[in-house]
Write a structure and sequence with these properties.
The complex is a heterodimer of chains A (about 140) and B (about 775).
Chain A lengths: L1 H22 L6 E8 L5 E6 L5 E7 L8 E7 L4 E8 L10 E6 L2 E6 L4 E2 L7 E8 L3
Antiparallel strand pairs in A: 1-4, 1-6, 2-3, 2-5, 5-9, 6-7, 8-9
Chain B lengths: L1 H21 L3 E9 L10 E5 L3 E4 L5 E7 L2 E8 L6 E7 L4 E3 L2 E3 L6 H5 L11 E6 H6 L5 H5 L5 E4 L7 E4 L2 E2 L3 E5 L25 E8 L12 E7 L11 E11 L4 E11 L3 E12 L2 E2 L5 E2 L3 E12 L5 E15 L7 E20 L2 E18 L9 E20 L5 E22 L10 E24 L2 E16 L2 E7 L2 E8 L4 E15 L4 E12 L3 H5 L11 E3 L7 E14 L3 E13 L1 E7 L14 E7 L2 E11 L6 E19 L2 E7 L7 E8 L6 E10 L17 E11 L4 E8 L27 E9 L1
Parallel strand pairs in B: 1-7, 1-8, 13-15, 33-37
Antiparallel strand pairs in B: 1-4, 2-3, 2-5, 5-6, 9-14, 10-11, 11-12, 14-15, 16-17, 16-45, 17-18, 18-21, 19-20, 21-22, 22-23, 23-24, 24-25, 25-26, 26-27, 27-28, 28-31, 29-30, 31-32, 32-34, 34-35, 35-38, 36-37, 38-39, 39-40, 39-41, 41-42, 42-43, 43-44, 44-45
Classes of the chains: A alpha+beta (about 140), B mainly beta (about 775).
Chain lengths: ~140, ~775
């Protein structure tokens, strides 16, 4: 009887523990990285940070060509991601222009070209990408 | 005058003649208890053979068989989960005989599950009971889905799980849903993705009582029907020695690739005892009969701790805590998916048996149900431009005092009084991505609901047995006070969010009186007749009163609450006739009719008043008290004699409901069919008992008729007919292990029920799962 009690107690604790661990799956943190590459002139960005607040930077310049401009933060599945880029360069195939939102290094959103252009503006070209950390 | 009086007396005498006759016969009474725990058993079947006369035991374990002729009989008592007990009895004179039974818990009798009687003999209304073992041997994912096997009970499907039950066309808060007879849960989602029953883990259920109609009033305001979810409770063991028992279930379903696990441990002694359960369900998306994938996956977990303590003789204290959680529950027919649900249920009950003379039981009960519900549109088609995330907190707290009185033999009175408070608050955060002008992500906060309702009540139920006649009566008074913060009326103007209005709400007070009366008469050993009439009143719920601009209905409209709604009142009558013959079988026919006043429906309001807040809807509808709605229908059940190896059953059920006046935009529609009422359906089962009833395979057939009696005012579509074949078999390997397996939807039919909602962004309804193979293994030590 003592053995049975012990087995039952172990099973109970194990099941409860497994349950709690499984429930915590959604709480695993993932790394979100915003990437902008291939721009020589200065550009503007707007993005959502780890607090779901919009951060707006009016002028940026890429200093490391290979790496480009990046910003990383950690979030849970479902956290919103958003990257807005306005730039001056009239990019082409050779420019190696690239805008992406990566989650744990994998692109969930990316583009090699602009979404729209308005030549009346100081920064005529615009890219907007959004999403969320997958469940 | 005198001849008239004589005539009346003669008629009365004639009417009383059968009672005078039965008074010359004997009756048998007694109590049925569990041998191990000493607890009384409720719902056990007592049969007098060879007469086939019988009854089922009441809440205190007592039973009564009346009108018994002199002779030698065998009494047989059966109850699911217990060994059948028989006793010989010799009736020699017209007096009362007392025969008590103690039963030994064992593996269930499969035949009692396979051969299901959908209506109980002793009530004048239709009452069905579903037991734990039925949940365990079938591929049961949730309570709403499970209940669909009861005649005239259907459910609204919006996803893979959490189906919302509909009884004879009554739905939502028209049904009184309680846990253990007193706890009420308020679901979070205004669109009822988590109806109150969804917060109880199906494997924690010990039995479900379904009462059709406004006849049982002591458990809460009951307008259209009562669903009592009785959960597994800790029970005291015999003796001081610490004892332990465990029960585990492992279930698997193909198609969904779904698994469910349960472990339940009961332990303790005769003073202190507890019940500990852990449940888990992990289901993927299912494929319908056309091989299309339906995004319906879900994960659910729950943990239950219950403790019982007997401080002194006849006193008992029980405390229960349940934590149930849902994660990533997908609803293809709703604008949002459930991302997270954390529900905490607590209850405490102090009971005293026989505290004073004529009081058999006193109970003081308190509960708290707390639902924290988060849902979003992140995986919906609209998520590329806007993401909505809603968080709703719904809390219900209640306390009541409950008395069971026995003022004389064959009389029972139940009295209950208490107070219940419901609070619901919800906000939605809208994040709009595609705002091209500025690189700022606009975030809008909208208050969906912020209401509270308090219900103060008192209810009385009376039951009297006079020979072969059972009379029941009940009355209930509810004092209902509702209030809310300001209602912000959101809307979209030229695609831009605006606040159209701010409505300041006045406190609403409603006083509701409900009452019912029933009579049940055993005409002879074969025939029983029951008749019940009742008036059930329920106050509008928080959503109907205070919701702001959400598409929460069947049709594509934003809905807007109405703080001035009146209470809905159902006036219903039921007539039930039963014939029971051990050679032919059991037949039950029930017919019912209801007349509902102040039915709460919704009608369109002009765009000049309010604009909708949801893209793509036709407009705004506001709740109102409609003209009378009439329900009528029938149920027919046949069960073959249970002493045959080859047997079967047949049921047929139908409800038709009509709104005498409805609105299609501004046009009046007279006699419009009520929306969301299921069509006629019939079910047939054939089974064979092998190995002394240890192995019983069963083949089921279900035919659902076309539903073309559909609502014009709600733009309801007709639903085609379909038929299904299912196969299930359960096998008792030994006293520790039972295995059940089978195939649902053998022909892989592509079909949908009339109550299935339409998939968002599509023109077709949500299809039911295609072919599913299942296996459940139940272990017990």
């Amino acid at each position: 009887m003592k053995k049975i009690r012990l087995i039952v107690a172990i099973i109970t604790i194990a099941i409860a523990g497994l349950g709690f661990i499984s429930c915590e799956k959604n709480n695993d943190f993932h790394v979100v990285t915003y990437v902008v590459k291939g721009l020589t002139s200065d550009f503007q960005v707007g993005y959502l940070d780890e607090n779901a607040m919009t951060v707006k930077i009016d002028s940026l310049k890429i200093t490391d060509k290979a790496k480009g401009w990046t910003y990383s933060w950690k979030g849970k599945p479902g956290a919103l991601t958003y990257l807005y880029v306005r730039y001056k360069d009239d990019v082409d195939m050779m420019s190696k222009f690239y805008v992406a939102i990566l989650v744990d290094g994998m692109a969930i959103e990316q583009t090699y070209n602009c979404d729209m252009a308005d030549t009346t503006r100081e920064y005529p070209y615009q890219v907007v990408r959004q999403g969320y950390i997958p469940f | 005058m005198k001849p008239k009086l004589l005539k009346t007396q003669a008629i009365l005498l004639l009417l009383m003649f059968p009672f005078l006759l039965v008074a010359q016969k004997a009756k048998i009474t007694g109590k049925i208890t569990d041998l191990e725990t000493g607890l009384t058993l409720y719902g056990a079947n007592v049969l007098l053979l060879p007469l086939q006369k019988g009854n089922s035991s009441a809440e205190d374990g007592s039973y009564l068989i009346e009108n018994v002729d002199k002779g030698d009989y065998t009494m047989q008592v059966s109850f699911v989960g217990y060994k059948k007990v028989t006793k010989k009895i010799s009736i020699k004179e017209a007096k009362s005989y007392e025969v008590n039974f103690t039963m030994v818990a064992t593996n269930f009798e499969l035949s009692e599950v396979i051969l299901k009687d959908w209506s109980q003999k002793s009530t004048p209304y239709v009452k069905a009971e579903l037991k734990k073992i039925e949940i365990e041997i079938l591929p049961t994912r949730d309570i709403g889905d499970f209940l669909r096997q009861v005649p005239n009970v259907s459910a609204i499907r919006k996803g893979g799980t959490q189906l919302d039950p509909v009884i004879r066309g009554y739905k939502y808060d028209q049904l009184n849903v309680r846990v253990d007879g007193f706890m009420r849960i308020e679901g979070g989602c205004p669109n009822r993705m988590d109806p109150n029953i969804a917060h109880i883990e199906v494997d924690d259920i010990d039995r479900i009582e379904v009462i059709k109609g406004p006849y049982v009033l002591r458990y809460g305001p009951n307008m259209g029907g009562f669903l009592n979810l009785v959960t597994t409770k800790p029970t005291p063991f015999t003796g001081k020695k610490f004892q332990i028992s465990a029960r585990a279930i492992k279930g698997y379903e193909s198609n969904w690739n779904g698994t469910k696990d349960r472990l339940n441990i009961k332990a303790g002694n005769d003073r202190l005892y507890f019940n500990l359960s852990a449940n888990s369900q992990d289901y993927g998306n299912y494929k319908d009969g056309n091989d299309n994938l339906v995004f319906s996956a879900f994960r659910k977990y729950s943990f239950t701790t219950e403790v019982g303590f007997i401080p002194i003789k006849n006193h008992e204290f029980t405390y229960s805590f349940v934590s149930s959680q849902g994660r990533n529950v997908y609803f293809p027919a709703l604008p949002m998916n459930e991302r997270l649900d954390n529900t905490k249920l607590m209850s405490a009950v102090y009971s005293i048996q026989n505290p004073i003379k004529n009081v058999s039981l006193f109970r003081l009960m308190a509960f708290n149900s707390d639902v924290h519900h988060v849902m979003d549109t992140k995986e919906k088609p609209s998520s590329d431009s806007m993401i909505g995330e809603s968080t709703i907190d719904a809390v219900v707290r209640g306390i009541n005092a409950n008395f069971s009185l026995n003022p004389g033999k064959d009389n029972k009175i139940y009295f209950i009084t208490g107070i219940e408070n419901t609070q619901k608050q919800g906000v939605r955060i809208k994040t709009m991505y595609m705002e091209p002008a500025e690189p700022i992500v606009p975030v809008k906060k909208e208050f969906l609901i912020d209401g509270t309702v308090t219900n103060i009540y008192a209810a009385l139920e009376y039951e009297k047995k006079i020979e072969s006649l059972t009379l029941t009566g009940s009355a209930r008074f509810d004092h209902n006070i509702a209030n809310s913060g300001p209602i912000y009326v959101y809307g979209l103007k030229a695609g831009k969010p605006i606040i159209q209005d701010t409505v300041i709400v006045n406190k609403a007070v409603l006083n509701n009186i409900s009452a019912s009366f029933g009579i049940n008469k055993y005409l002879n050993e074969n025939w029983t007749i029951g008749m019940a009439i009742g008036r059930g009143v329920r106050s509008p719920n928080l959503l109907e009163r205070y919701i702001t601009m959400l598409p929460v209905g069947y049709d594509k409209y934003d809905y807007f609450g109405n703080p001035d709604l009146k209470a809905e009142a159902n006036h219903q009558a039921d007539l039930t006739i039963k014939y029971d013959n051990d050679k032919i079988g059991r037949f039950t026919v029930n017919g019912f009719a209801s007349y509902v006043l102040n039915y709460i429906a919704a009608k369109e309001i002009p765009p000049s008043q309010y604009l909708p807040n949801t893209k793509g809807v036709y407009g705004v509808k506001q709740f109102y008290n409609a003209d009378p709605v009439i329900f009528r229908g029938f149920e027919f059940t046949y069960l073959s004699p249970d002493n045959l190896n080859l047997g079967g059953s047949f049921t047929m059920a139908y409800t038709r409901a009509t709104m005498t006046k409805a609105y299609n935009k501004t046009d009046i529609v007279e006699n419009d069919p009520l929306y969301e009422v299921p069509p006629m359906e019939l079910k047939a089962n054939v089974y064979y008992r092998f190995l002394n009833s240890k192995l019983i395979p069963r083949l089921s057939f279900r035919y659902v008729f076309e539903q073309n009696y559909v609502s014009a005012s709600y733009m309801e579509n007709a639903t085609p007919s379909f038929y299904l074949f299912d196969f299930a078999s359960a096998f008792i390997y030994n006293e520790h292990i039972t295995i059940s397996a089978g195939i649902n939807n053998i022909l892989n039919t592509a079909y949908y029920e009339h109550l299935n909602r339409r998939i968002i962004g599509e023109s077709f309804d949500l299809y039911e799962p295609g072919r599913v193979f299942f296996i459940n293994i139940i272990g017990k030590i």
